[in-house]
Every structure is written in C-alpha cells, then in structure tokens.
Amino acid sequence: MEIKEAKIFQDYLNGVITGSETETSKKLFKDARSFYENSDCDLSDDTVMYEVYSYSQGDPKQTGNLNWGLTVMKPVTVNQECNITRGHFHEDLNCAEIYFCLHGEGLLLFMDENDHCYAEKMKTGTVHHIDGHLAHRLVNTGDEELRVGACWPTTAGHDYARIEKNPFKVRIFKENGNIVVKERHS
User: Could you tell me if residue 130 is inside a domain?
Assistant: First the structure.
C-alpha cells in the first residue's frame, strides 16, 4: 500500500491554505473601491483588503464535487465603513454553502431575492449555513483579521453581476467603536 502526503495544508492558526493545487488571490483597494458607499479616502490603492485561498478536485461541473476555501479579511475601514467582500448569489441557487469562523469578529450579511437583509454574528468557532437562494458577503467588524473557511459545491458558481445591478441594501459602519447599520436608499 502506498501512503501519500496530503495535497494541501490549512494552517488554522495563521489563516492560510498552502499546497501545489491551491489557488490564491488578493483583492486590493483599487479593485474593491466600488464595493463601498464612499471610496474617497486615504487608503493606498495597493492596500490588501482580503485574500482568498481555494482548493478543488475533480470535474467542477460534476455534481457532488466540493470546493474548500478560506477568506482572510484585513481590519480596515473605508470612511468608517467596515471592510466587506464583493458579495454574490450562486449561479445555481440550489447550491448551499457552509462558512466557519476561524478567527476574528464580523458579520455574515445576507440578502434575499426580495432585497430583505439580515446578518449573523461571526466569531471564532461559529458555523453558518448559507441557503443557495441568498446573496451573502462577509463584513469584518473587528480590530483583527477575520478568517472564514468555506465549503461549497463546485457547481454553485458565483453571480457577481446580480449584486452589481442590485446591491445590498445595508451598509455596516464602525463609528466611535460602535457597529452602526445604515440602510441604502437608491
């Protein structure tokens, strides 16, 4: 019997996934400006907003295959608005997803197909089920990195265009140390 080494390694303490088959991307402020209500601020365009690590095996179009991922969000604000991910619906609305918080504090923001928004608090150890019919985005409300693991079907896909056309109706700010939710009116 042959015993092989694992293809990937997740460092739960330092918030990275490594391995020859791991894909890594960084979202810089210059690429995330449109996510925020008012992006006119002193942040450098090269500021890292978040990093995404992902691993997948098998045919991505075959039902039953899974992606494994990790998002590491920096504790930055843009004109007091908390750092956020791009947010998306799944292309296949029948595909659910699991998020699990490895470190930090934040919110998992949801928006249903009728534009109703709500959030679940995230902190180290929480596990979150994401219904495939809900748009979702991460919000770092803390003063440390927010590290969130994820597992989702390879067939789920990401529908970012739908969020660009119809953005989340709430914004999350950190004002005088307090988390403040503001509704968008558009």
Answer: yes
**Residue 1: inside a domain, yes or no?**
no
Query: For the chain, how many structural domains are there in total?
Result: 1
Please state the φ and ψ torsions of residue 33, each to the nearest 5 degrees. -50, -40
Contact 109, 89 (CB under 8 A): no
Assess contact for 142 and 174: CB atoms under 8 A.
Answer: no
pTM: 0.93
Instruction: Work out whether strand 16-19 and strand 8-11 pair parallel, antiparallel, or are unpaired.
Output: antiparallel
Give the H/E segment covering residue 29. helix 29-32
d(CA 179, CA 109) in angstroms, rounded, equals: 14
Q: How far apart are CA 140 and CA 143, in angstroms?
A: 8
Q: What is the pLDDT of residues 18-58, one digit of tens each?
A: 888 899 999 999 999 999 998 888 899 999 999 999 999 87
- Domain containing residue 73: 8-183
Q: Tell me how far CA of residue 88 lies from CA of 102, 134, 140, in angstroms.
A: 21, 8, 17
Residues in the chain: 186
